[in-house]
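Thread title: Can someone regenerate the structure for this chain?

I was given the following input by a collaborator and told the matching structure tokens would be attached. They weren't. Posting the sequence so someone can regenerate them.
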Amino acid sequence: MCKAYLDTEPRYGKNPKPMGAVAIYPMALLRVADYLQLDRKRAPAVLLQLRDPQSPISVQEWQKHLAVDHIGPADDPAAKTITVNADIPLKLYLQLRDLLAGLQSEMDHSTAVLDETYGARSDLGLNRLTLAIRRIYSNLHSSAFRGRLPYIPERTGFSADPNLLTLLVEPLYGKQPSVGVRELMQNAVDAVCELDAWCEMHGRLPASLDLPDQEPDVLIDFIKQADGSWILRVTDKGIGMTAGTLQHYFLRAGACFRQSAEWTKEFVDENGHARALRAGRFGIGAFATFLLGPSFRLFTRHVTASNSIGYCLEASADSR
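Best answer:
Regenerated them for you:
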């Protein structure tokens, strides 16, 4: 950020020594030096007992330092080796691993910025301003060290395969295809109601908008294909969706658009009452379409879209 500021500040005109100072170099040194002060010398155990911090976060920071036995040279002259004792719990192991990854990232970033700023300025001798230590090694990744730990040293948690969503559809909605039709129809009616509310708030008439050329607000068609298969098509003269709504709500199981700040700002009045009532909700409802068939296509354009630009989305039951 400092380099970007110096590059764009007219007073300095990309001068490598603004006001006679090589400002980027001491900043890089301070950032890396502060990171490297992570051994037990910075947090003596006796001082921890005397201060007796009550904050769990403070205690964790002290424990990180106490877990580092030694910081010394490495076979690589431009590196340091950090030795951590094996008597650490899983949570502390993961925190230290993240800390060292952050330190290496800081070294990489600082080295790149220094090289970009001073690397070509041999005329001023600034090309010699580099970090003497640019790499960090530790025993945290050693197979021997990891083998002595009484746990699997990896971060894990709950996750769901995309196929889970389609597996949930039938238990939630039953085997009735009519449920899928109902969900699509509810969302279409909601979109029409929201457009009516939007037009009223913005002083627009629906007839002045570029809407589908159809008489009813919601039209449901059953179209037979040449191969004998059928397509269900639902078309509405509604408010449409933005790319953000598609990504963050329509495709997220259980996400409710009407609870978002975006919807509330547009459709909730100063008394907290909704200007447009909704029957359906995005999320699992979108996956009810798979009760009707193995795939669907969606075309949408939000009423505020410039140049009449809309979006097309295609998905199948095994889409990732």
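The chain has two domains: 2-148, 163-316.
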